[in-house]
Amino acid sequence: MRIPLARILEARDKSRDLYSIDRETAYLRHEALQERAQHKAEKRISELFIMVLCVFVLIGGRMGFVSLGHATANNDSTLAEKHTRSRADIVDRNGRVLAANFETHAVYAQPHDLINPTNAVAKLVEIFPELDHERLLRDFTGKRKFVWIKRNISPEQKQAVHDLGEPGLMFGPRKMRVYPNGHLAAHILGGTTYGEEGVNGAELIGVAGVEKYFDNELNKTGENDGPLKLSLDLTIQDATERVLSGGKNLMNAAGATAVLMDVHTGEVIALASLPDFDPNNRPLPPNPTEKKSSESVLFNRAAQGVYELGSAFKIFAAAQAMDLGIVTDESIVDASAPMKIGRFTIKEFRNRDYGHISVSNVIVKSSNRGAARLALSIGHEKQRDFFKQIGMLDPAPLEIIEATGSQPLFPRNWTKTAAMTIAYGHGISTTPVHLAAGYAAIANGGYYIKPTIVKRSERIQRQRVLSAQSAAAAMTMLRKVVTHGTASFAKVAGYSIAGKTGTADKPKANGGYHKDKVISTFAAVFPADQPKYVLVVSLDEPVDRSGKEPRRTAGWTAVPVAAELVGRVAPLLGLRPQFKVAAVSQTDLNSH
Amino acid sequence: MKPFLYITMAFLTATSAYWTYRESYQTRVIMKQYREIQREIEFSQSRLNVLRTEWAYLNRPDRLRELAHANFDRLDLQQLRAKRFGRIEEIAFPDDELLVARDSAEHPQRLALDLMRDTP
Question: If you average pLDDT over residues A536-557, what whole number do you get?
Fold first, then answer.
C-alpha cells in the first residue's frame, strides 16, 4: 500500500482511518482513468462513423451516376474487333450488290506445336498444290514460331486441313472482298487488298477506284450506315460493256470506252473501259519500263485517260458564239481555203473547201476552218473562261481515285492560235467524262452539272453556262449531224439521236501525229427532242476493213457502235420508243 | 416501441437483401441471354451476308446471259428492243359484253351487281 506521507500525517491529526483514505485515492484515480477511456472511445466511434459515411456517399454517388447516366451496352469489344468489323458493301442504284464481304479463314502454323512437321508439309501441299514444298519444310523445321500458310481458304480446304489432326495448324477468321459480277464495272470498283494482318482478322483496304476513294467511309461502319450506293445501273452497265466489247472487236480497236450519263442529275449510269480485268483477282500494275501504264488493263480510259477528242468539241464553239449573240445558226461563216495563222495552216478533212457556210453547216459538215473562225470571233479569253465553266480545265470530279489524276492537257498560253485549234478539239486533251459533262450542259438546257458516280441524294448544284435558247439551237445542230451529216449511222429505230463525231490523229510519243492511228469519238444525246441521256463512245485505233479501203473516221467506227448501244440500252432505261404507228386492225391481233 | 422498430428494421434489411440478391442474379441471367442473342445476331448477319453475296453471284449478268441463251428458243424469249414496245391501243381487249358474260358465268352473284350498275 502506498499512501502519500502528507495524507498519513493529515489522517493522524484528524484521527481518521488510514484505509478509507487509501480507498478514496484509488477511487479517484479509477474515475479519471475511466473518463479518459470513454473519451478515447467516443473519438474513435465518431471517426469510424465519418469514414463509413464517406464510403456510403461514395457508393451512393456512384450508384446515382450509373442510374442517371445512359445505359451502355457491354459488347465485349476487343482489339480484334477492329479487323472483324466488316467493310460496307457497294451496291448499284437499285441496290444490287457490286461488292460484298465473304467470311473465310486463313490457315497458319505454330511449328513448335507440330507433331510431325514433315508429314504435315506433305499433306498440306496435297491440299494446296500451289504451295512451295521446300520452303514450307524449311519454315516448319527451322526456328520460326509462326508461319502464314494461306489466306482465304474454302470451307472444304479448311475441313481437309482440320482432318490432318495437327495441333500446330490453326485457323484465323478472314473477311474477303468479293465482286460477284466479275469483270463488270471493274474500273469503277477498283479492288482491295489486305492491310494490317493479325491472327484474328485483317484490315481490308482499297487500292483503286471507288474502293480507294471512299476507303475511310467504307471501313468506318457506323450503326445506321447502309451500303455505298453508286449511280450505276448493273443491267445497263452490263449491256454497255457487252455491246462495246462487240464493237471493239468488230472495229479492230485497241481499246474502247463508253460513258452514259443522266443530263439532268450528272449521274453516271454506265461507264465502261475496255480492256478490263477481274477485280477479284486484280492484276499487278505493269512494269513501267516494259509497258506504258495507259496500255495496262488497269487503266481507266473513260475517267483517267486524256485524249484529244477532235471535232466533237466544235459544238462548244458554236454554242458559245450563239450564246454571246455573235452569230445565229444561220449566220454565214468564212470557211474557205486557205486559212493561215502564222506558219500554221488549218486544213479540212481530205483537203475539202466548204467556202462560205452557215454556223449550222460548220457543225453538220464538221468544218475545222469554220470552228476556228468562230473561236476567233469569240476571243481566246472568253473561250478559256467558258471551257473552265464547263469543267474542261480541271480533273474530272468523279469519285474514283484515278479521276483525281485526270488533269486535262491544254496550252498554258491560251493564245489565239491555241483557241482556234481548241475550237475543233486539237491542242486540248480531256477524258470522255469531261466531254460527256460538256454535252450534258448543252442537252439539259444550258446548265453545267458535276458528274458523279454516287447516287445523288442532295440537291443538284447547277450552274448556268448557256442560255436556254442557244442550248436548244445547239441541240438542233447536233440533231442535223445525224439526219444530214457525218453521223448518219446513228439512226436507231424508235429513238432519235443527236450528236457529233470526232476523229483525232493519235499523237506520237516523240511529237507529231500518227497517220493511220486515230481516236474516234461520238458524243450522242438521246432522245433528241427531250434529252435525257448523253453517251460518249470513244474507240482507240479503230479500223473498219469491211470496205475496199480501211475506214477510220468516227462516222464509220464509233457511230455504229454508239447506235447499237442506244438501241440496246434505251429500252432498258425505260425510254418509250417513238414510232409512227400504222393503225393496226383488230383482225390482225385476234388472228393468232 | 423500440423492439417493434428493431423487428421492422430487421425485416426491411432481410427483404432488401433478398431483393438485391434476386435482382443481381436476374441481371446476370439477362446479360447472358443478351450475349447469346448478340452472338446469334452476328451469326445470322454473317449468314445473311453470305446468302446475299451468293444470290448476287448466282444472278451475275454473265450467268443470266448464258441461261437466256440456253433457253432462248424453248421459252420463246425475245430481245428487248424498241420494236418490242407496244401501245395500249394495240392490245386487243375482248368486248365488254363478253367480259360481263364470262364474269357472270363464273360468279352468278356479280350479274345482279352489274345489272344494278347498268340501270340508270
Answer: 89
